Model the fold of this input.
Amino acid sequence: MIVLLKIVDVCTRVEGHGTVKILVQNDEISSVDFEIGSNRGFESFLIGKKLNDVPKIVSRICGLCYASQTIASCKAIENMFEIAVPEQSILLRYLLLFGELIKSHTMHFFFQSLPDLFQIFEISQKPFSPYELIRYDSQLTTNVYELIKIGNEIERIFGGRSVHLITPIPGGLIYLPSRKNISIARKYFQRAIINLEWIIEKFIDVFSNHVPPKEYDLPNVMYLGLNNFDNFDRYRGTLKIKENERNSIEFAEKNYSSYFEKDINLRGIDFHFDKSKRFLVGPISRYKITENYEIDNINTYLEYFDKSWQNGVLFANFLRLLEMYFESQQGLKILDEPVLNRRIILPSLTSLKNSEGVGVIEAPRGMLLHHYYVDDNSLIKKAKIFIPTEINISIINDIITKFAQELYNKTGDINLVKKKIQTVIRAFDPCISCVAH
Amino acid sequence: MKPRIIIISLTSCSGCISTLISLDIFPQFLERTKIIHFPFILDVEKIEDCDIALVEGCISEDSEIGLLKEVRKHAKKVYALGTCAAYGGILSLSNSRNIKPISTYIEIDGIIPGCPPPSKLLGNILIRLIENKDTILSEKVLCSSCPLRGNMEENLDADIIKINPNPDEIVLGEENLDCFLKRGILCLGPITREGCESKCIKLGLPCEGCMGPVSKDFTSNIINFLSLVSLSEDLKNYEGIFYRFSKPKLRR
Done:
């Protein structure tokens, strides 16, 4: 007799509502799925909307990736008008992406992934509660809190508020030059660099001589991300799919549909490749397709982690720290640009050149792409939004299924299985709100 | 005794919760309270008795009603955190999903409006809540504290032709700018609660109403407002201007 048992567990310490569904058949785990509730329907209620109305609506897809959603949307619209966005606006958009990344990565690192890392490496037997966490190391807590504040303040200064930004609009970014604000922002990035160096060194100190368990290893995957002539860049560049050192493809965002596509009525993104291939986006992919960060410290920090780390999903936790460090340095460079002190007039959006437009961004969790089509009245006719976490779900499911099967065979403890597979899911930092767009 | 806190999310973007966690006072909030349920940062799933429950998000699925009622049963006070919980929020734009503010299903003790709630407002309300003091929200509309107020006319008879200025028309840092309505740009200031410090208006954009309405009778406020301005045909047919962050109670 086949005994089928369905076990559902709510994922905690992730953004949004996700569940894990484990199917047990004759006392063996047959499948494990990370599941997300139904879509809220953004792609359908964007239909009929005016273009300049779209970015602030799509911001509401996600309270963590709001800047990425808004800016990807602006880029798609600007692509339709074929207008040149002023350099000042582009630089300010970078700052908003940096602030968002600092806030999002820091919250994930501290509240969501750090308790898991302590447990995985047996530094603590049970996960720290937020209360234990803030008392673990007062310097760490102070540094983390300053980083969250810095992310927030960068958004407030250049975006008008800290979530669901006001200033990025199709055509550019609303900005009144202020030397005082530039100088405050400079102090924030300088502070972020100091705090991040401390946290990175602490991370190396506590974790680098541990060997991550094999269960967290990544299978062979195709890395996908935005890339600017092999440099780390989350705003400008071309898309790149890289399988290994010998095998990679680069293409312009407007040609994405030659490589992947989606049906807005269905969950998931289809890649036009061999079905066994899995695609990964996010910090690990960005790292794999970046040849050089051009910051000496970063290469030194990376040397502390051998292959056992670099092949696994837990490495993303360290890479997130490096990304914040890298972008804080970039932030300082941008603040020195004289163009930020000029008063400019944004381009007018009057004549639509194309009836469709594509915009792409590297959001904190990976490549985010918006594709809009308009009707004869320049109203949205169709919208497709490609969410990074949607791409990663296949890999997440592969890893958690294998992990769960092996652990259940060995221990027969389904509660342990439920707990452990959540640590894998959290290491990917899934954005459930975005998936349920 | 530290107040016991529950924080849950229904259908939402997590923006109110990310705003809460990134408040300057959040570490202080953690120290002064005992959080017993908060899935974003805590593994405990059980809902137990608490003093204050903060609910983010609207109700968009029946399965959420049970959780909401369970929280209500265990909480001395329930606050709607953000415009989705308070009024329905951005999904009011959706025609396919029947979304509701949480007050449709449970009695609530207060709201903290905004998309997301302004940090100062949220911080002040949280401190008052943990000190077991009453919370007060302004009952005035945004125009009453608008920086462009000086140039507003009492007997407005404006022709409204657009919902946003063109990018090249946005001017900042200039004195004596006209009220948006006078410039033919729809601004929801007259029917929206103040408390956001007019952030959009100061940045050259009109109010889109994310703080939600002041009075319960939002629809009649809109009707009054529409008697003062005339919308272009284009805008009359455009959906989701007034009901972007809340749905009218009677529909169809």
The first strand of chain A starts at residue 4 and ends at 10. The CA atoms of residues 232 and 293 of chain A lie 6 Å apart. Chain A touches chain B through 62 residues (CB under 8 Å).
